[in-house]
Amino acid sequence: MIKGLFETHIYVADLERSIDFYSNVLGLTQCHYEEERRIVFFWIGKPQEAMLGIWEKPKDEIDIRHFAFRCDVDDVLNKSIPFLEANNLKPYNFLKSGDHEPMVFAWMPALAIYFNDPDGHALEFIAILDGEAKPDLGVISYQDWLNI
């Protein structure tokens, strides 16, 4: 019955700042806005495929969330870091190697890089890799993935 995830919602402290970030930095298309309710909706990808709802709440009512944007492997590998750095966003991974290159979650397998929105929500660019999952490898560098 379930075919995918259609929408998710987050709370933010400053709706206008978040509209600017998700529209002008990440390039999402705004599809609905309600001033009275202090909410905005964005299409993720093609219109009517997936949606992000953003609600303004007082800062002390905001709990930090995580969600990932599906991307192509080439985009995560070659475009994500320059894009994030050009927009003053700090990419990070879970390799504990001191760098900020995309990493591989071998159990999927998927290539991913993380960054935060202005409220501290953990966002991710992720792309599913070809090949068989190797859960025993944990989180590894892309180069290590290519060498196995």
Structural features, described:
It contains three helices and nine strands, in the order E-H-E-E-E-E-H-E-E-E-E-H. Helices cover 20% and strands 32% of the residues. The strands form two sheets. The protein has a five-stranded mixed beta sheet. It has a four-stranded mixed beta sheet with strand order 1-4-3-2, covered by helices on one side. With 148 residues, it is an alpha+beta fold. It has two domains: 63 residues, 2,3-Dihydroxybiphenyl 1,2-Dioxygenase, domain 1, CATH 3.10.180; 85 residues, 2,3-Dihydroxybiphenyl 1,2-Dioxygenase, domain 1, CATH 3.10.180. The radius of gyration is 16 Å and the shape is globular.
Main attributes?
4-stranded mixed beta sheet, alpha+beta, 148 residues, 2,3-Dihydroxybiphenyl 1,2-Dioxygenase, domain 1, 2 domains, 5-stranded mixed beta sheet
Total DSSP helices: 3
Structural category is alpha+beta
The portion of residues assigned to helices is 10-25%
Strand content: 25-35%
Number of domains: 2
* CATH domain topology of the largest domain: 2,3-Dihydroxybiphenyl 1,2-Dioxygenase, domain 1
Extended strand count: 9
Question: What is the distance, rounded to the nearest whole angstrom, between the alpha carbons of the first and last residues?
Answer: 36 Å
CATH architecture title of the largest domain? Roll
CATH superfamily of the largest domain: 2,3-Dihydroxybiphenyl 1,2-Dioxygenase, domain 1
The largest sheet, given as strand count, sense and whether it forms a barrel, is: 5 strands, mixed
Q: How would you write the strand order of the largest sheet?
A: 5-8-7-6-9
Q: Averaged pLDDT, please?
A: 96
N-to-C order of helices and strands: EHEEEEHEEEEH
What is the top-level CATH class of the largest domain?
Alpha Beta
Based on CA atoms alone, the radius of gyration comes out at 16 Å
**Which segments are poorly predicted (pLDDT under 50) over 5 or more consecutive residues?**
none
Tertiary shape: globular
